[in-house]
Design goal:
homotetramer; alpha/beta; seven-stranded mixed sheet; globular; cytoplasm (chains A, B, C, D); AGPR_type-1 (chains A, B, C, D); amino-acid biosynthesis (chains A, B, C, D)
């Protein structure tokens, strides 16, 4: 199998390449970029030694054509046009938001402009979702926050242990914002400081979380979501709480999460008493989580750690692509974090 | 006025000294320590150049006696014995937890052992509290998290705009854990990683938050509190949300916070649209906060940033001591953060 | 005295304002900016609460005129034109490079373009320099690296204990590069990573170091200088070594440094055995240094820590301005670092 | 092949396990520890999901016996006794210092106590060394700093382009100090700060560098070495300079380094103009380096980046073990860094 990567000079593109470099079933084909087209990859991804001399081509149907799989790591709104030109037989894995939402009104409210459509959602751990990804030729890779929050909350909702009124506060590393040159992303600003942004229900990932969780809960789910920027490059740590249903016990809660994690290679319920740290999952496709019942406050509390670039973007993309290509789901995906 | 500092080799002690070194109304007297007694301060606080040669004495009634004010920055449980020996005329400012809680049962549940009593609570911004601190000879300095959370939430509860069912997720710098030598506090562990701890209603600061907020709300308040350790030395960023009361508007919410911050020198409501970052308050006694109404989720969301060692400990201690000593409340307390 | 600050939205400008806010002898007047003119200071320096509502004016002779002192924190090459228009009676303190070098050829080689001239050099600790700064109306503030390296090396050269062939490797925080929006300054790039830049004698601060040290040594001095970008916002730690002259002893070396630091309020020779860390000087105008004789390698080794924005830029500027204005040299300048 | 790891709860042990978990030719056998024996690995290495439930045994000849290869990641001085008991047929790879030095006097001066002996030195890139490692049953893994400095400097000395009088200043991440619980290694102390230590020719890695370089140069080599602790968990960036021999050109220098890197899988000479950052090599067995001729100062300047735990310890250990076991040298060793 040969893969092309569009947006190879960005952070998502770089992580896709890092994973594919040690993927035994996928060979790296064309690399394309936007304004960086015409330069060498090594100028942008100096950590990828074997690809340093590879040129970045223009992102066109010609350069991306002729591959078995095309990974799109493009700014929002650019995927539909490319996808149309590539034809129905190419597996297209879109790391952008364009095809994630099912509700056009939600798309318009949060992203603006016309809704491009909906593709199979690349989160195999979501009940029933794995089957939908086998043999598809189109995959919408989840957002990084929705990946974390959905994996953290769905077991409690699926088991009817929590009310569908979820409060999420999540810290992310700065790579989640990409390589965009904005003053608040400068090292001088972010080091030694945690800051809030997108507060008050305004973050674009909110409807995606609600959509995923509603599908599991079988009823509408409200998410109050507050993201924070933390002084680290990678990682998301999300704290998710919801009112416990009457009579819920700590044992029932743990059982529900054990069941959910049971056969999932990348969902890791930590031993009781151990709480997630993003370092556990740095560079890995693993989600590490832990659950507690706060009996005083009457709430279920779930904390989850993922690497926003791996399980939250590029790893999730490769995992779903493996399914669609008929390869073993875990192929080429690291289980272990790089720590300390 | 002369001040003695017990626990001068720790982080709270160091911050007290940094503030007192530029305080025009308080002179630094005896410095004492526990296991570090007999060494020089410069070995432990090398950033305090003018005090580098000062010896650390044993923490006893003799070494602490004869000062106008004694700041205690001791491990929990050691303050009562010292306080008794110093007599009623010395102003004692306890940065520990011993005298914060009013409910002996809450003390026993969260700290264990016998409750030592309750002293006037050193948070002048709390309605009515400023007057109680004038001329007192005993002050219980609030915990760092309760300082942040109380300042963030009390205006909404006092104005009846939010229900008394609060969810708090707060990131702290590592200095909040003190200088204790534990593996999870090593630089190698904390850099590049955010982790959760004290989840599920188990953190000791929870009853203190509830006590403060219940006094303002005039009814019991439940706090679901989840702390996180962030890769920075200083700072707390707390996200606090509670259900909005029916009919609450964004305007009413902002007005309530403007009113609360109006005459408070250290409570800074940011301009609309600007959200707090801990760097805004690094080394300062300022709390920077912002509020929003999440109309989709029906929740009030408040985010607040403080420096855990300054407003959250030593600055709060000096602010309250100023009141008790009849000095201007703001004397010697920095308003501006050190940034970037 | 009233001061205007040109370039108030940048890092050097922000640090000048932070210092002046607690300076009892200088009042803050006009604030000007380049492309940020027309916005409020609070959007760029949110840590400076009392100035948040102050407007940023255009940088012109009109807005800067009528002040006793004008601090220029502008890009290289813009100071001469402004200075001419402000007239000879205004104290102008230039934080840029334009007037630091005496040798036009060195200027042209390292900066390009025509040499603007030479102003009295704002490093009062340099032998004989303090007197030159009293009553001057023009001050060229040293570069951050030259401040560190000159203070570290001049005592050994002045005492004839080291040969004039100096090797310097220095780590700097990212604020040294200012707020320029370049990919390698993004938080994602700098956190968790140390990198080299300006290697091989190409860094513009090299001739400034050589100029300072040659004046002290009375002979030409060669500096091999390698800077590194470290994952912190502030601070320079410079390691400076030079061949020891024959017969030099560790005692003679320490004596030379004790003599040099003796009456200098901001030059702090650490006790034997303690080595500098940048945290000792964070936010302070202090330089902390230590010296050793490596007898195996036959070299003098000096390590020095400063805050690049304080002693290395804005603090040095205020210190020299104090002298020129007839104020006490130490007025308004913090001695103590903010740590941990 | 089955491998036992002694010292599995430490940082070197953890990195060995991370590498071996994806090594197709070596299976992980017994894991042992010192004071952590009796606990589960997951308590100490939570990033290694598949091994979380593995017990830590006592470090004895019994638990380590019966494996093809034993990796020792023990405190200095403990390897000899274990090695004796394991017998001559087991491949023993010692990550400690015990068997690195050839000169007993240097050992006694820098480490104290009796010299244990000398084992083949595990740096295959050193001229002639690769052959010595094939089929050996004993390997002394180089120290992290000597790995970086030797790889950086040997090409210039081997080609006669630099004088044997080397000045090295190197920044390291905190994991180089291991998990020892010391105040200066706390996150609160190291974040936001660079500090110097082991200055003046006192660091134990100095004689090891000199030994390696003298062997290549064919004459004694002096190294003036100054290490710095940088606010990152992993990585070494070393700046190495030495006087250029008369007549040396930049072209000749680059040629010498191209020749040295030519067939070395883990030695990566960057394209001209690109300088190393530790992020390029994070988690990888690669050394990234660049060389320049400073014509003004007459010095060769080489900057190199490695991951202290990978190429600097565990990766170097596995690379040499591969050779000794007759496996492909690169087997199981990552080439690409995890970035950003």
């Amino acid at each position: 199998m040969r893969a092309a990567i569009a947006g190879a000079s960005g952070y998502a593109g770089g992580e896709l390449l890092r994973l594919l470099l040690s993927h035994p079933g996928i060979e790296i084909g064309a690399l394309t970029a936007g304004s960086n087209a015409g330069t060498l990859l090594g100028a942008h991804q100096p950590h990828l030694a074997p690809l340093a001399g590879r040129p970045l081509l223009e992102t066109t149907a010609e350069t991306l054509g002729g591959h078995d799989v095309v990974f799109l790591a493009l700014p929002h709104g650019q995927s539909a046009a490319i996808a149309e030109q590539l034809g129905p037989d190419t597996l297209i894995v879109d790391c952008g938001a364009d095809f994630r939402l099912t509700d056009p009104a939600a798309w318009e409210h949060f992203y603006g402009g016309a809704h491009a459509g909906t593709w199979p959602y690349g989160l195999p751990e979501l009940p029933g979702q794995r089957e939908r990804l086998r043999d598809t030729r189109r995959i919408a890779v989840p957002g990084c926050y929705p990946t974390a929050v959905t994996l953290a909350v769905f077991p409690a909702l699926a088991a009817g242990l929590a009310a569908p009124d979820v409060v999420v506060v999540a810290a992310t590393g700065t790579s989640g914002a990409g390589k965009s040159l904005k003053p608040h992303l400068l090292g001088s600003e972010v080091m030694g400081s945690v800051s809030a942004y997108g507060v008050g229900g305004t973050h674009r990932h909110t409807p995606e979380m609600e959509q995923n969780l509603a599908a599991v809960a079988g009823e509408p789910v409200t998410v109050s979501f507050t993201p924070m920027l933390a002084p680290m490059s990678r990682g998301i740590l999300a704290t998710c709480t919801a009112p416990a249903r009457p009579g819920v016990t700590a044992e029932a809660l743990r059982e529900a999460y054990e069941l959910a994690a049971k056969d999932e290679p990348f969902l890791r319920l930590l031993p009781a008493g151990q709480w997630p740290a993003t370092s556990m999952t740095l560079g890995a496709n693993t989600a590490a989580l832990q659950v507690a019942l706060d009996e005083r406050a009457g709430r279920v509390v779930v904390v989850i750690a993922i690497d926003n670039l791996t399980k939250g973007t590029a790893g999730g993309a490769v995992q779903s692509a493996n399914l669609a290509l008929g390869l073993p789901e875990e192929l080429g995906l690291p289980l272990n974090g790089v720590a300390p």
